[in-house]
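Narrative progress, year one. The postdoctoral researcher (J.K.) led the effort to move from monomer predictions toward full complexes, under supervision of the PI. The following entry was the first complex the group processed end to end, covering 840 residues in total.
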Amino acid sequence: MTAPHPPVRILVVEGDGEVRRRLVADLEALLDERAEVRAVATAAEALAAAHRAVGDGGLLPLALIERTLPDGSGGAVATQLHEDPALAPTRKVLLTSEPSLKDVGSALSHGAVHGMLHRPWTRTGLREHVGAHLRPLAAQHPVLAERFGDLLEAAAGPPRPADVEAVPDDVASVLLDPTIDDAAIERLMVEVLDAALGEPPRLRVAPGAVLIEEGDDVGGIYVVLDGEVALSRHDEGGRHLLHSASTGPILGLLSLTGHKRAFLRCEAVTDVLVIPLTVEQLSRALAAEPRLGALLTRVLLTSLARRLRRADELQVEVDRLNRDLAAERDELSAALRSLAEAEAQLVHQARLATLGELAAGVAHELNNPAAALQRASEHLAEDVRTILGPTSPVARAFDAARTEPPMSTADARAGRQRLADELAAAGVEDRRLAGRLWAAGLRDLETITATLGTVRGRVRRRRQLPSAAELAERLGPIEAGARAGTAVRGIQLATERVLALVGGLRAYLRGGEADEPFVDGVDLAQGLDDAVRLLGHRLRRATIERRYAPAPAITGQPGALQQVWTNLLANAVEAGGDEVTIEVAVAPATTPEGAPAVRVTVTDDGPGIPEGLAERIFEPRFTTKHGQVTFGVGLGLSISRRIVEAHGGTISVESTAGRTVFTVVLPVTHPAEAGR
Amino acid sequence: MSELVVLVVEDEPEVRDALVRDLQPLAASVRIEVADDAEDAEAVVREVAEAGDVLGLVLADHRLPGRTGVDLLIDLAEDPDHVGVTRKVLVTGQADHADTIRAVNEAGLDHYIAKPWDAEELRAVARAALTDAVLDAGLDPLPFVADLDGPRLLEAYRRRASDR
């Protein structure tokens, strides 16, 4: 197909070889030989090339001119072409990678630029652009309408309403009339603007293109006709999106009126079609068309109101986030605190566990030799008894020393003194001898005479108290018998202590009675009464006050709990002395988690726990009092704690002088079982 | 005639009995008294002073019900009746470093015997301490020659005899 007369030409002025080649290729594909594309690389060649294009009667409807050419600005080239009468009808479109109006303001104001094509372009964008620029010329040159009908059709756009005249004349109506909706106002504004400026050029930009850069000097405004623009601002925290749906159709006016640099960056989110307007164009339009001011104001007010609402929402959002953040920070620090506590507790538990294993091993290893020792001492006693014969004085001394009830050193001394006095009265004055006799179990004159006496008279074999020298001589074997008895007793007592220690240690390590099953219906008041009865001998002189409120029975280990009550009562007597007053109380309660529980308190009026010791009183410790290993304080309390904790309960102590209160709180149902 | 007394302060009866038993070889010339706590020990100390006897040695456990053995020894060191004569020995398994330092510095501790003790060592310490006490108290050394440190006592006796 050959090009029909007159030839139609399109001029490309582009310095970049690659861009030029692609633009020419895209245009040729679009025009499909219906027009000839001519391309030059410099501003200097542009005018001559344009003249050649029209010199043979050809039509040059469109010139696409690069905005920044190697030897000059595209705006200047456009102005040059525009001022040439032969080329005035040609639509001049600036090709630009930068949508700002810098350096093109003058060309725009002269009406020398009819459009701006944003680089990189899309084929669709190019097609619309070309169509849009061919359309105004098609009325004069039917050949264009005939040949490029499809392109003109595509660029027809929304039908232009012919009701520009319908816009109310008075400013107040435009501003306040609620019957005109925002979309209609925007459309009217564009109509009026087009009418006033003779359809200023449109600029189409691709997504991502920056229309106004934050901080730039704004040379004019943009009226957004189509597409979505986002407003954002950058700070040290990165880029913040402030408006997207709330942008509104007019960009840059705020900065322009305040003569300030752009506060926000305006960036295309989708394909965007805008009308760039210079300050000069804007004031020309406002002067030509008084209604434009009102329209512009109303559009601006609407979009500013939208932005303000969005800002208010953002503020509310910021407040909410701050609150959430503060709450999270509090939670986090609480979590950190409890983590540190848990860690300390774990370390403590790990150490106790190691000690516990060690103690269990020692207890086990001690148990056998101690048991053997206990048996051996009994066998030894039996055999010595057999050797000594049934009734000899030595045997009696051995038995007496072995089974003698414990006597305080003061009482023993008093007894010895009495014996020394008796002996002195009988003529034997020797305190050391008296001491030896006493130790040998010979503790009055009668016994001494009967055992060691000299026989006087042949018929009535009466015995007489011998002299000191004779006594000392004859005492030897009996003393030895008594010493042997004392030694055997020593072995037995020491062995019993070791066994008691081992037993206590094992009970502690087992956590009381770990094997005992949990049963329902454990009555705590009943258990306390049983414990009081069991300790009867030790509570003989104590005053027990019972305060039992009706409380539910619990699920627990009755035997183990009895051990707890016994420990607490024994502890009260130990602390407060025999005549202590102990108050035992039972009352319903709740656990810290709010589960039903029973509270048992054991209160004594003893001297109280020394300050600083109350914390450690539940730690496992042994105490030795007058040679007796006591579990009442220390091990007994730590066993009690193990038992209470195995029930999911708590045990605590509060102590002042004259009032010490142990409080045990036991849940009615064990927490581990409650969920079942 | 005043007697020489050794006092054993120990609250556990079987341990006390064992100590007394190990001191038996001295019992021919020395009277052995026992006490089960510091308070009872002070009663013995008073009685000894009232009877005009000589308290030559106190063997005390550190851990006692009530006041400790170290407290007892410190009080004893300040008691005018016994200053310069009574020797003080701690027999203990449980005194810590600080207690022992206090006993040495404030009670003029003469010796420290750790539990379990060795019977020979116990007797050797007791003999040496009691020999010192006999000499310091100015007692006639002769009755103690057999049970205590014989050579030292005889040497002292000869010197005293030649002084006259």
